[in-house]
Amino acid sequence: MTLYGRSSSHFTRLARIFALEAAVELRFHPVADMTSLSFDDYGGHPGLKMPLLRIGEDAVFGAENICRRLALAATNDLSVTWTEHLRWLDLRNAQELVWQAMAAQTQLVFGLQLAGLPADNVYFAKARVGLSAILDWLEARLPRLLRRLPKRDLSLFEASLFCLLTHIAFRGGADGAVRPHLQSFMDRFGLRSSASATAYAFDRV
């Protein structure tokens, strides 16, 4: 299995965490240039997106899709809580908001830091306000959300939330407000070996 992505990407980190938790051997192929319009640079992804998991001639698109495929290939007894296992509406909403925040974070990093577009554009202003509001929503509910998760080794919600929060700390994007519940969660999840082994970095290619 070969993963196409970037060590500075939260979606890529999510896939790499799942690979380590599932004890699946994974080769990593860094995407050198996010401005590239060559499909080959993204492992053949038709949308010029990452991550992409290549298994021989087959390709798996998207972080969640890749995580599910890696869990199926687990060489241990990994128990994963997926979105469909969440009985409570607030938990399902929380997962959806994490996905939306991860997309907004990508929008801000790509548009402002990579493309150098004006920060006062309403497209980015709305993304920043929405991202901060999502973090406030999660902060207000996180202890209850975590208590409602079923017994598991790993949950998609926790892993994706961790990747989001650490990416904001790494690249910026949201306001600098102190959110103690989110910070405490990030610190605890960060003690996992899969988290410490996938710290954000800029690939040298």
Description:
With 205 residues, the chain is an alpha/beta fold. The protein folds into 2 domains: 2-78, Glutaredoxin (3-Layer(aba) Sandwich); 81-193, Glutathione S-transferase Yfyf (Class Pi), Chain A, domain 2, CATH 1.20.1050.10. It is built from 7 helices and 6 strands; from the N terminus they run βαβββαβααβααα. Strands 2-1-3-4 form a 4-stranded mixed sheet. Strand 1 (2-5), helix 1 (10-21) and strand 2 (27-30) form a beta-alpha-beta unit. Helix 5 (156-171) crosses helix 6. It is globular, with a radius of gyration of 17 Å.
Alpha-carbon distance between the termini?
20 Å
What is the tally of beta strands? 6
Count, helices: 7
CATH architecture of the largest domain: Up-down Bundle
Task: Give the strand order, joined by hyphens, for the main sheet.
Answer: 2-1-3-4
Number of domains: 2
Fill in the CATH topology of the largest domain. Glutathione S-transferase Yfyf (Class Pi), Chain A, domain 2
